[in-house]
Amino acid sequence: LIRGNSLLARLINYGDRENGINAYWNHALVVMADQGRLLALESEAHGVRPDFLSGVISGSLDFSILRPLVCNQAKIDECVNAAFADGEAGIPYNYGMLPKVLLYRKFGWSIKGLGDNLHRDICSVYAGWTYGGLLPISCWSQSVIKQDFITPQDFIRFLDTKQVSWMAVEKLD
User: How far, in Å, CA of 132 to CA of 135, rounded?
Assistant: First the structure.
């Protein structure tokens, strides 16, 4: 999870507001290790693409890593590889999902059709699909959160510490 400070990041924080409190996290990505380097697979303006995790977090205000506990490492690796292959397919960013989140959070309206495109993702839907759809982690599944999307903040809102550990920055060493 990433906390950025761009205009879009601050709008996401505001749009994902709950109970009068702005969301803290505004970007989600999948982290994988490749030949000793940590890579980030993220859905952003230019689509899903890999980047060095160090480069992604260097431009952020804060970050945290969530680690699935419910599966063995082989299953996690299988899901991350599937996410990487999906990312190589060049999935474009789904800007239509952003107003959908805003309307749902502000008014409780679920607008069918708005942002519904199986060939596009926002960052958190991409990460949620990897960790909640492929693994699956029930605390991030659609049946639990009952909404048509998952936001970066939802990874914390619906966190189940029996299924996911929240790794602080100090634990990266």
Answer: 6
User: Phi, psi (5° rounding) for residue 75?
Assistant: -70, -40
* DSSP output for 59-83: TSSEE-EEEE-SS-HHHHHHHHHHH
Cα–Cα dist 57/64, whole Å: 10
CB-hemisphere CA count at 13 Å for 16?
Answer: 24
Confidence (pTM): 0.85
Closest among 48, 39, 147 to 93, alpha carbons compared: 48
What count of residues does the chain have?
A: 173
Give residue-wise pLDDT tens across range 58-102.
989 999 999 888 778 888 888 888 888 877 777 778 888 888 888
Cβ neighbors of 11 (< 8 A, separation 6 or more) are 98
Mean pLDDT of the chain: 83
Residue 65, C-beta contacts closer than 8 angstroms, at least 6 positions apart? 1, 31, 166, 167, 171, 172
Alpha-carbon distances, residue 6 vs 26, 60, 93, 105 (angstroms): 10, 9, 17, 21
Q: Which two tokens stand for residue 156?
A: 């914390």
In the block, which residue shows the tokens 């634990």?
171
